[in-house]
Amino acid sequence: MKHSKAIHWLPIICVAFVFYTSALFGQGEANHWFFLDFHINFNGRNVNISSNPIPASTSLNYSSISDINGELLFVTNRDGVYNKNFVKMPNGDTEFPQKTSNIVSQYIIIPQPNSSMYYIFISGENALFYVIVDMSKEGGLGDVVQKAKSLPVSILDHMAAIGNCNRFWLFASHYDEPPSFKMHLLRFEINEIGLIISPDTIRINGIEIFNSITISSDGKKIVFNTHNNAGNIQQLIYKTVLCDFDSNTGEISNPIVFFENHPVWSYAFSPDCSKLYTSTSSYSRNDFSLHQFDIIVHDSVTIENSKILIHRFDKDLYIIDLALTPHGQIICQKRQTSPLSSKSDVIEFPNRKGLDCSFKMDAIDFYIFLSTNFVSTFLSPQFDETFDVKAGEDQEACTRAQLSLGANPQPNINYHWQPANHLSDPTVANPAFLHADTLGQKADFQYIVEGKRGYCYGSDTVTVTIHPDKYAPLSGSKSVCPRITGVDYWAEADDRFRYEWSIEGGELVYGQHSASITVDWGTTNPAASVTLTPYNQLNCPSDPITFPVRINVELQTETPVGDELLCSNLATDIPFQITNTNGSIYTWESDAGNILQGQGTNKVRIDWPGDGKYHLWVKEQSTTIDTVCYGVSDSLLINLFTDSTKLEIDFAGVMRENSDEYELQWYASDTSMLAGNIEIFTSYDYSPDWQLKQAADRQTTYYTFADTSMNYAPVSFKISSVNGCREYIESEVHTTIFLEGMADSSSNSMKISWTPYLGWGNNIKQYEVWYGKDDDAQMSLVASMKPGQYSWSNHWGAEAFNHQYRIRAIHHTYPFESWSNQLTLSFDHGIEIPNVFTPNGDGINDTFSFPKLELFHENKLQVYDRNGSEVYSKQNYDGNWVGGDLASGVYYYSFTEKRNQKTYKGWVQILK
Known about the structure:
Layout lengths: L11 H6 L14 E3 L3 E4 L6 E4 L11 E4 L5 E6 L2 E4 L23 E5 L5 E8 L2 E8 L8 E9 L3 E10 L2 E9 L7 E9 L8 E3 L8 E5 L5 E7 L10 E9 L4 E8 L5 E6 L5 E8 L4 E8 L5 H6 L2 E5 L4 E8 L5 E7 L7 E4 L11 E6 L17 E2 L11 E4 L3 E3 L9 E5 L13 E3 L8 E11 L2 E12 L7 E2 L2 E2 L6 E4 L7 E7 L1 E5 L5 E6 L3 E11 L9 E7 L9 E2 L2 E3 L6 E4 L6 E7 L3 E4 L5 E5 L4 E12 L4 E5 L3 E6 L5 E8 L6 E8 L9 E7 L6 E6 L5 E5 L8 E8 L5 E3 L3 E2 L3 E6 L4 E6 L9 E10 L6 E6 L5 E4 L7 E10 L5 E3 L3 E4 L9 E2 L21 E6 L5 E6 L13 E9 L4 E9 L2
Parallel strand pairs: 27-33, 28-33, 35-41, 43-50, 67-71
Antiparallel strand pairs: 1-2, 2-3, 4-5, 5-6, 7-8, 8-9, 9-10, 11-12, 12-13, 13-14, 15-16, 16-17, 17-18, 19-20, 20-21, 21-22, 23-24, 24-25, 25-26, 29-31, 30-32, 32-33, 34-36, 36-39, 37-40, 38-39, 40-41, 42-44, 44-47, 45-48, 46-47, 48-49, 48-50, 51-52, 52-55, 53-54, 53-56, 56-57, 56-58, 59-60, ...
């Protein structure tokens, strides 16, 4: 047996085989492909490519079949039938008939429905042969139980197969006996009984079937190529015929003809069967192309108009066969006459329209020999309306009720329920349903059951409606005086439920079946209680809720309920309460609060003083016909506070990286206490008029924005918000540095001055002067100034045309900084060219140079004699010309500088 070896392919193979994983067939029978040198395994997301494990063979054509999980059953070629271990089966050396022509035999494997038998059909020399394999033999490895047997028909090498539940169809091109040699279709049926030997002859409106029979994977379309059989190949008229196909009856109907006069070598349907791909290969017509057609509408004009050229090939390099992979792509076998092609092409996304299908040349770095329909298209499971799969009747139930879904199991059917939630076993015909979770409202659970038997499947749906539970927390008095009457208890009202109450230690006097009741209590009882059981619309009870009640002369009065954390500025008219018990009188007391109203009742309103911690409690007295009961509650601790949340600006200024934008950073001492957004305000030139610039989320601490109007005056910032006690708070004002200055051309001097940064108080460490000139990429620090110094000057004007300045203020303690606006001071430097120089080596006026020449980096100097001949030329002249070998005399110059696009012309005298 050959061992797997490393296979090298182009990077595109990863795209072609790995990432497109939509299930084409729904089962795995076509997941193993075999070629002369290679074996491709399509199981899983990735594709495994290895060497062909079949013992040495020169066979170009293979066929294989796997089980529904993609595990190989057997493979066949012209040398015989091999089991999954790649060992010939018993009787596997079948001596398959071979053709004497240069066209190889074709093999198609078709299972006998609901059986362990498989038929291998072989196109022999003008004949059709079949072999039978029984996979129940040899421990599941299989046995050839009938060697090659011929059928009494004359066929060419064009076959196709499709399956429909309990039967399969095999189509082959057939020609009549001479002299007519008319070609038609033969249709064979393979059902549960076996192969029907006598085929049907299908004649379609006089159309002669020529080759390339292809059936769509959904079993609804069949396509083939025809010609007029005129006898002269130069005069043949080719046509593509697309028909509807009924996989239940095997009938072919509604033929439409399009793409005429094009000899199509091979067809392939897209995975969703909406597109048809054609490969044309004709030397006589010089046509070697790959086209796509949209076949959603069964109309010849519409289909013809949808034709899109995907690729046009050279006559020596063209596609001859197309095959759809289990992963939903189309492999294109390419033939190259000289040298032999070693690569194959791929259509990555065949469902997409036009060039979006992503045709990749040389995507597979090895040669794949395909034969038409070498993988049969019967591998899609077919839906059968008569298939007896039952999900059962729709049902309604209560939570925790167990139901039975489905029906009794049928023989040889595999069941699968979706979803599997709340089912005892999703793989049986009649799983139990149990919903044990609490539901607050009615819910529908929909299930689909699918049953498969061989290549048939059926499905059904069912809906289970579960009515909600009711968790009903109870309210009322937990501690009451003996023989007290008219005490109220209640739950949240819900019209979907009926309420059943029971009383221990007292008597229910009003409200049974409603959400609230009234109770008269009896004598002292430490274990009295109120119990509620809600019933839903199906009369299903929820879990009972029991509310304990203590009957005693010593009342256990509840602790007051109300806000325990209060802002001092808002602590007025604050409500507090306890549960009211009929007949009780409540006396409220506090160590600081002022009771405004409600004294004697179970609800009061209180004003509280300033910051601090205070207590509130209540005394209860209840009098019955023979008893006086008392109780004092625990104290409720009230905490009053002042919100000290602060807003502080860290710094404000122009951004260092972008002098066209401003930046602002701030700090909130407790963002959780802010009740609103951070509002950013600005004003210009110390104006008292503030404008709202932006509202930022309270978690935000940094903001940038552009505003060109800010470049002409100092800018002031402040931020504000609302704290947790609804008080307006704002930061101190910070004002940016504003820089301005003057340039004096007569002295080449510059003076700059700036306004101070305001907001840091005395915490400014220093001011820095940053400078750059002309095309400098960055500014450099040139001076540091103490706080209180706001001006600086220099005499650098002659060194550049433009001079840029910025000021940076640095905080003394924190890593804060604020940058000013950018100031540019400019000088318009003119050129004054002298008309004499003396290159005599005395170090004085030895070169033809002139002031500020270094500022004009890009220039050109040309010098001419009296006759107009150029005697000197220099690009980017730097002032070092000494006249060379020229004699003393007058010469003429032309000096061009690029900066201002000016040219200066004149004369210069050389004195040696």
